[in-house]
Every structure is written in structure tokens, then in C-alpha cells.
Amino acid sequence: MGRHYLQGIAMTRDQWLKTCAQRFIDRGGLDIGEAAAYAEECARQQKDEHGIDPATWDAPADAADDDMSYWDNDGAEDDEP
């Protein structure tokens, strides 16, 4: 865990969400709406585990990858956000 930066500045929650959603699009093949919903759920989990400051959360790509590691081979989870 450490600070996450975008162009040298600690990420805001919105930047973290956008980066996380993009990972779901790039690696999970989700559309933007689905990816945004999954990113919101990841952010909720990060807040519960690490507090309100996104700079203390896991990297967005790591959070998305962790979530996707529970998916079935078809790319769909049993419980969608």
C-alpha cells in the first residue's frame, strides 16, 4: 500500500475510480457502465479497509485485478454490483 499518483499529484477519488474502471474495460472487457459500477464497489471496499483517503488505498489496477480474480472464466461474476 502506498500513495498513488497521477502526473505527480496524489489521486483524487474520481481519478482512482476512472483508473479502476479503465482496468475493468481493458482487462475484463466490460462496457463503461459496468466498469463504473465495479469501480464504485471497489472504492467502497477500499474505503472500508483503508479509510477515506484514496491515496492510502490499493492501486486501482490492483483492486480491479483482485476483484476480477474471483470471476468465472466467462468474465461474469455471480453477484454484480
Detailed description of the structure:
By secondary structure, this protein is mainly α. The protein has one domain. It has 3 helices and 2 strands; from the N terminus they run E-E-H-H-H. Strands 1-2 form a two-stranded antiparallel sheet.
The portion of residues assigned to helices is: 40-55%
- Could you list the spans in which at least 5 consecutive residues all have pLDDT below 50? none
Strand segment tally: 2
What does the average pLDDT come to? 86
Rg, rounded, reads 12 Å
Which strand-content bin applies to the residues?
under 5%
Structural class based on helices, strands and sheet pairing: mainly alpha
**Alpha-carbon distance between the termini?**
24 Å
Walk across the major sheet and give the strand order. Answer: 1-2
| Structural domains: how many | 1
For the biggest sheet, the summary is: 2 strands, antiparallel
Query: What is the approximate shape?
Result: globular
Q: How many helical stretches?
A: 3
- Element pattern in H and E: EEHHH
Quick take:
The protein is mainly alpha-helical and 81 residues long. It has three helices and two strands, in the order ββααα.
Strand and helix map with partners:
Layout (H helix, E strand, L loop, with lengths): L4 E2 L2 E2 L2 H16 L3 H19 L9 H9 L13
Antiparallel strand pairs: 1-2
Helix pairs in contact: 1-2, 1-3, 2-3
